[in-house]
Structures are given as structure tokens and as C-alpha cells.
């Protein structure tokens, strides 16, 4: 495991002049440079980005979901950036985002707006107008006669570009952005370290909040309040308890009352800091855990660290995934499952960044036949679980791949279940 140097690690969440923290200007610059380098190495003259994380990666703008293609960005081979957004957002960005000098009003050709129109002719008009806005910019920047990549493959929208003589590539833009984003810059790693620290504040709040008779939803509400108070955006996550901990409850957090001897499971996924997403699990016991609960936790933890010890630059995902449980360890008979791909989300490692799932994915259901190589600078979450009688334990770490292994970004104690004495 990678050992950090003295004074290396999480700083405060505010801007100060007396020490170096996350440098957002450097992060914006380096992300755009990575995407531009890969675009210039391709046969494309530009890429049209509609996927929110890709837009944020290149522009640095806050993407909060929107209604689908009401914001989109063109990056040209010369490094020009044109961004389209809704009326209010675009007006705000023109004032507050001086690093972007060409911000225009978007026509939402995909998503909720055309769907809500209730009219086939309206949907067609919106897509045509969206293509027109982009094509006009391509002409202005001299890339209208070169191939354009697009990261969302909508057939009708592509047709609208082709009607204007644009050669549209539906795969290269995705490959460019995946390659740019698969390893992280120094500041991106610090964003992930910071969101892990914020999640730990949420875990602490759970230890203070969870009591017999208190509902899961109340405990989760207390935790979310803590997360928001530290500057996070909570766009996912939940708390479950007792029999809702295994298998995972379909409704996530419910109004179930917590009882003595329960396990309580906190899943802090999609908690964001500057857009960078967490995936961080911990299990708590209401009072002294039973022997079965201790044994299950020990198994889950050991499986997790077996995988972590296999991750290093140059290792391949087909070999690493062997550290995850086999058929018996996956309890495939209980699930009445025949193949590993049927066990989605139970035991795997997935990349973390501006999205919850980025490159790489390490999973027995996929990696043996489709391996990729691990690279230094990749960031990921590694997660395992085990049943404990009628309940279950889950544990997960957030890590970054260093030159000689992984550095663990998550710090909540992992050696045993956190006990909540009430």
C-alpha cells in the first residue's frame, strides 16, 4: 500500500492564501489539455459533448442533470470551446465564467423538452435547430468540413448534421473522453480525497444519530444534513438496517425502525465535491455484534483487501478479479444464479471521477474475457459484501493507483464493524 508523505492529504474546503489546496484553475486547464491532446491525435476536427460529465470535464461548468441536451459543448482541434446552455444558465456563465469566451443559448433537441412537446414535428424541429446552432459555430471556427465526433449517438440528430454535410463519428468522441478521464490529475485526486473525508463526517453523524426506535429515513436525513454542511452535493446514498441490509432493499432507505442487534449499512455513493463522486460503504452494529456478524465482516474485509493488494500499474483486470469471491463466496446458489454477470454490484471495483462509474471495471462477470491494464493515476472504489444470518455487511474503500500499489483515500476504520452503543 502507498504511504503518504508528511502533510500530504486532505486540506480544508475553503479558499485560503496561506497554503496550497485544490487548484481549480489548474484542474480546469489540465483536464481540457488532456481532452484536446487526444482530439488532436485523432482524425476529428471537433467533438460535440452532450454527456454531462464530459461537458464539465472540458468546461469546468457545474452540471446538475438538466433536462437532456439543454447544455452541450463543442471542442475544436485548435482548442476553441463553444458552450450552449439554457437562458438563465448561459447568462450566469457569461458573467461568472471568464475562462469561457463563447457561450450561446441552447436548443434542447434531446431529452425532456422534445419528449414533452407531444408532437413529432416539434421533436424534429428541435433536433434540426440544435444541429443548426452547432453547425453555425463549426463554420465560424473552420471545422465544418472535418469529421465531428459526438458522445451521444442519437440517430435523428446525427442525420441532421449529415444533412448539412458533416461527417459524424459516433464512437471516437467517447473513446477520446474515456481515455482523457481514465487517469486523474493531482487536483482530481484531491477532490476525491476531500469527498471521502466528507463522507466520514456523515458516518460520524450516523454513529450519533442511530438509536433503537429511530427510522432509517431519519438517520439518513441527519447524515445528509452533515454532508451538505461540508459543501457536498448529495445526489445518492442511503442507510438501511436489519433485514434491509441483505439483500439490498429495492427502495434503499425506508421508514423501518432500527432495533437492538441490527446491522446498519451506510452507502455513500454519488456524494459529490466539485463534481467528483464518492462510493464509500461502511457497516455499523447496534451494540455488540454477534459472532456471525463478526465472521461475515471479517470475510468481506479480507476479500476486499485481497483485491486491493493485487492492484498496481501493469496488472490486468482478469487477474485482479480473481481476488473477489468465487461461486460459493458470491452465494450464487442462494440467488439461484448460474453466471457471474448475474451478480452485478455485489463484488467489483469501478472507476471514480465526475461519474460514479468510470474506467476501470474489475469484475468476475466481465474482466476474464475482456481484460484491460491498470494504469497509475486511476481512481476507483472496491466493494465487497457478505450475509450474516438474516442481515448483511458491506465494506468499500476509495483508492488511487500509485507506482507501487494503491493509496487508500478512505480513512474510516475498517478492521472491524463500527459499534454504536446506545
Automatic annotation (TrEMBL):
Pfam family, one: Peptidase_M24
InterPro entries per the UniProt record, alphabetical: Creatin/AminoP/Spt16_N, Creatinase/aminopeptidase-like, Creatinase_N, Pept_M24, Peptidase_M24B
Residue ranges of every copy of the Peptidase M24 domain listed in the record: 190-403
Keywords, comma-separated and alphabetical: Aminopeptidase, Hydrolase, Plasmid, Protease
Top-level taxon in the UniProt lineage: Archaea
Signal peptide start-end: none
Record keyword Hydrolase present: yes
PANTHER family in the cross-refs: AMINOPEPTIDASE (PTHR46112), XAA-PRO AMINOPEPTIDASE P-RELATED (PTHR46112:SF2)
Protein's name in the database: Aminopeptidase
Name of encoding gene: pepB5
Amino acid at each position: 500500500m502507498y504511504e503518504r508523505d508528511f502533510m500530504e492529504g486532505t486540506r480544508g474546503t475553503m479558499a485560503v492564501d496561506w497554503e496550497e489546496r485544490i487548484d481549480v484553475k489548474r484542474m480546469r486547464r489540465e483536464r481540457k489539455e488532456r481532452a484536446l491532446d487526444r482530439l488532436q491525435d485523432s482524425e476529428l476536427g471537433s467533438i460535440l459533448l452532450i454527456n454531462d460529465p464530459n461537458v464539465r470535464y472540458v468546461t469546468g461548468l457545474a452540471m446538475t442533470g438538466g433536462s437532456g441536451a439543454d447544455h452541450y459543448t463543442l471542442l475544436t482541434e485548435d482548442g476553441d470551446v463553444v458552450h450552449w446552455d439554457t437562458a438563465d444558465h448561459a447568462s450566469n456563465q457569461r458573467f461568472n465564467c471568464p475562462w469561457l469566451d463563447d457561450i450561446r443559448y441552447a436548443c434542447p433537441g434531446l431529452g425532456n423538452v422534445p419528449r414533452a412537446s407531444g408532437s413529432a414535428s416539434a421533436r424534429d424541429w428541435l433536433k434540426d435547430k440544435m444541429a443548426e446552432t452547432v453547425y453555425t459555430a463549426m463554420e465560424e471556427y473552420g471545422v465544418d468540413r472535418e469529421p465531428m465526433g459526438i458522445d451521444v449517438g442519437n440517430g435523428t440528430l446525427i442525420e441532421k448534421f449529415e444533412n448539412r454535410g458533416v461527417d459524424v463519428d459516433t464512437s471516437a468522441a467517447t473513446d477520446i473522453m474515456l481515455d482523457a478521464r481514465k487517469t486523474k490529475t493531482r487536483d482530481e485526486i484531491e477532490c476525491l480525497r476531500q469527498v471521502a473525508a466528507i463522507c466520514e463526517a456523515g458516518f460520524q453523524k450516523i454513529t450519533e444519530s442511530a438509536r433503537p426506535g429511530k427510522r432509517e429515513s431519519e438517520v439518513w436525513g441527519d447524515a445528509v444534513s452533515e454532508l451538505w454542511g461540508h459543501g457536498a452535493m448529495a445526489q445518492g446514498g442511503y442507510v438501511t438496517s436489519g433485514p434491509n441490509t441483505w439483500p439490498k432493499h429495492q427502495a434503499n432507505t425506508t421508514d423501518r425502525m432500527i432495533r437492538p442487534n441490527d446491522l446498519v449499512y451506510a452507502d455513500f455513493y454519488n456524494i459529490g465535491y466539485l463534481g467528483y463522486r464518492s462510493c464509500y460503504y461502511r457497516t455499523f452494529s447496534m451494540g455488540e455484534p454477534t459472532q456471525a456478524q463478526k465472521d461475515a465482516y471479517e470475510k468481506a474485509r479480507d476479500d476486499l483487501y485481497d483485491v486491493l493488494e493485487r492492484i498496481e500499474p501493469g496488472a490486468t483486470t482478469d487477474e485482479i478479479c480473481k481476488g473477489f469471491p468465487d461461486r460459493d463466496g458470491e452465494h450464487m446458489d442462494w440467488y439461484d444464479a448460474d453466471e457471474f454477470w448475474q451478480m452485478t454490484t455485489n463484488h467489483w471495483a469501478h472507476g471514480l471521477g465526475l461519474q460514479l462509474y468510470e474506467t476501470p471495471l474489475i469484475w468476475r462477470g466481465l474482466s476474464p474475457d475482456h481484460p484491460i491494464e491498470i494504469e497509475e493515476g486511476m481512481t476507483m472504489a472496491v466493494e465487497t459484501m457478505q450475509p450474516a444470518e438474516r442481515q448483511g455487511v458491506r465494506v468499500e474503500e476509495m483508492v488511487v493507483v500509485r507506482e507501487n500499489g494503491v493509496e487508500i483515500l478512505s480513512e474510516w476504520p475498517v478492521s472491524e464493524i463500527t459499534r454504536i452503543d446506545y
